[in-house]
Amino acid sequence: MKKRVLSMLLTACMAVTALVGCGSGASSTTEKAAGGETVASEDTSDENLTETQKIIKEAESMTLEELAAKAIEESNGKTFYGVGNSSRGKTALPLFIEYLQSIDPSYNMEYEWQQPKNNKIFEQLSADSLKPEGTFAMTLIQDGNQIESKMVQTGILDTYIPKEWAEANGTTPDEVEGYLSLQTLNKVFMYNCTGSKEYDNCWDFVAEGEHALFMDIDSEVVGKNFLYMLTEDKYAAQLKSAYEALSAEEKAYFDPTIKEMEGEATNLGLGADGKYALAWIKLWVESYNEQTDDGPICNTLVAESATDQSGLLVYSKLRSVEESAGVSVNNIKVAAYQDGYTGMGGYGYCHYLFVTDNTPLPWTACAFIAYMTTTEDGFSAWGKDMGGYSSNPEVAKAIETTYGHSKGGYDEEGNNVYDCKNDRGYDWWTTDGGLVLEDPQYCASVSFTVGSWIELLTKYADQVEEE
């Protein structure tokens, strides 16, 4: 009853929010929430742009070589500070400096890359934004929900779309919608196959007695975004379709929960298939075995002793598995790769690139972003990992030629030794593989309603502690 009352209160709050407006949506300044797409703005003339946004607008008409000249002039002899969720920004920066030195051998720039722990990057950027001139030149950041609500709507971060990146994607900077993504990473369903158990439907991972290994949604928030996305009409319909493929016996287990979620879906303003999404979310949150990181999850699943265990984890973790008598990647299967598998195979989230609005080095920030997104060398810091896909199709093709992820499980003699390491690629994962893709705007729109509902669920870890 308590949960039902809260759902009704959430619905009422949604109505009030619609009446009074959302956040800073009434602002008359231009907010570039999506490379070229202006939102929360009543006037898009240049005089209403910030100084950094004016530079970005000019930079979006320039080639990397032209930007490099600007960067050399601006930052020679200075220090570049970057901040990101990926430590490999620290690997990419010296490559960028070498590129600039290939144009001007006298060029020199010091650099520092910070990687805040425990999702503190938002606090760090917010604090830095209060300065007239910030410390950080740019950021590589994940979690589309918080980026939208805390960084973009507040004007802390600006999207820059490189001209040559847009051209590679068959468009122009001013036509691009959404943030600039460096790459999409995938977390996929896997299971230990040393026993006889098979997982041929995404509902199998929330079946009776299942406790899939998963990083807790409060320690890695992109996992919560995954659950938000399941309530979007497209993915809710896919969950319904997967449910309909189950046997009558299997459906009988899920039916009471799906029925229970009908009212909740209505109260939360979800679409016709929302009850299937809420049912899967409820069963998942109340059953997954909470873990601290994807590395330990991988190490557990590939052990011969982990019979019949499953998990949802970053695909690239398989690359670092060291084969031994009791450990092998052949002890697991990637669920979506199996014939007859039905439903979502995992979820995809992005590393996004932004220029800080009070950046001390706007031209250098734009040039660095262009370098990472339009050249193979620029993306090479991330290129060795399967399951990480450059947003630039030309760079993605070059990376595949260099690293051969699609044949990652083949030995030197051409034998398919570790089939699960043969990456099917972005196009496959986002179609046949059923990858659920993060949409920052959608996540932000339901983070209060669906997010508050999720907070009411009792996690499996909490249930165990109570026992």
How does this model look, in words?
The protein has 467 residues and is α/β, with parallel strands linked by helices. It has two domains: 23-182 and 350-401, Periplasmic binding protein-like II (D-Maltodextrin-Binding Protein, domain 2, 3-Layer(aba) Sandwich), CATH 3.40.190; 184-348 and 428-466, Periplasmic binding protein-like II (D-Maltodextrin-Binding Protein, domain 2, 3-Layer(aba) Sandwich). The protein is built from 19 helices and 14 strands. Strands 3, 4, 5, 6, 7, 10, 11, 12, 13 and 14 form a ten-stranded mixed β-sheet that branches. Strands 1-2 form a two-stranded antiparallel sheet. Strand 1 and strand 2 form a beta hairpin. The longest helix is centred in the middle third of the chain and has 20 residues, at 248-267. The chain is globular. The two termini are 23 Å apart. The model is unreliable at 1-43 (pLDDT under 50).
Q: In brief, what are we looking at here?
A:
The chain is of the alpha/beta class and 467 residues long.
CATH class of the largest domain: Alpha Beta
* SS class: alpha/beta
**What distance separates the N and C termini?**
23 Å
What are the segments in which pLDDT stays under 50 over at least 5 consecutive residues? 1-43
- What sort of overall outline do the alpha carbons produce when their principal axes are compared? globular
The CATH architecture of the largest domain can be given as 3-Layer(aba) Sandwich
